[in-house]
Amino acid sequence: MASASSTVHGGGTRRDFLYVATGAFAGLGGVLASWPLINSMSPAADVRALASTELDLSPVAEGQSITVKWRGKPVFVRHRTGAEIKTAQDTSPAELKDPQGDDTRVQKPEWLILVGVCTHLGCVPLGQKASDPKGDFGGWFCPCHGSHYDTSGRIRKGPAPKNLEVPPYEFVADHQIKIG
């Protein structure tokens, strides 16, 4: 009868084999035991569902604005009129606090999509409803500290340091967008 330390074909001992096999099973057991913990760090299904929002734009009339939720934030969608587009395009980025041309903020000139959170202190500016004050530049007005945004969502007056954010979006059809 051979002892546990006798050599096996290839030069190693049986004891060496037992050490390697035990280590491999312990490593596999550790991975399997930690999998539920690692898997629990993945976002839940309800969170993944909020990662993107699809929106049909066909019911939004020219000159109308709507608000939708995306990742818990209001998103302003405005079907701009020809006059609003012209005013936004005619404004020189050089005269703006946060210089951006209108063409860098929209994919189609008639549709403006913005995160509706003031860049000063996180308030929701007014200007979505027809009866809301739209500020000195026809866009949005944040009454908390007096920030005025134009028809492209760019800061024109007041303490806000930056323009309203443009969320990532794409047109999946002529009148349908996917935000996020």
Write a brief structural summary:
The chain is an alpha+beta fold and 180 residues long. 23% of the residues lie in helices and 24% in strands.
Description of the structure:
A hairpin with a 2-residue loop joins strand 8 and strand 9 (176-179). The protein is 23% helix and 24% strand. The protein has three helices and nine strands. It has helices at residues 14-40, 45-49, 82-90, and strands spanning 53-56, 65-70, 73-79, 111-115, 138-142, 147-150, 155-157, 169-173, 176-179. The mean pLDDT is 86. The chain folds into two domains: 1-42; 48-179, Rieske [2Fe-2S] iron-sulphur domain (Rieske Iron-sulfur Protein, 3-layer Sandwich), CATH 2.102.10.10. With 180 residues, it is α+β, with helices and mostly antiparallel strands. The strands form three sheets. A three-stranded antiparallel sheet has the order 1-9-8, with no helix packed on it. The protein has a three-stranded antiparallel sheet with strand order 2-3-4, with no helix packed on it. The radius of gyration is 29 Å and the shape is elongated.
- Which spans of ≥5 residues are poorly predicted at pLDDT below 50? none
Number of domains: 2
What's the name of the CATH homologous superfamily of the largest domain?
Rieske [2Fe-2S] iron-sulphur domain
Q: Provide the structure class.
A: alpha+beta
Main β-sheet, spatial strand arrangement: 1-9-8
Q: What CATH architecture label of the largest domain applies? A: 3-layer Sandwich
Tell me how many strands there are.
Answer: 9
Note the beta-strand portion. 15-25%
State the distance separating the first and last CA atoms. Answer: 70 Å
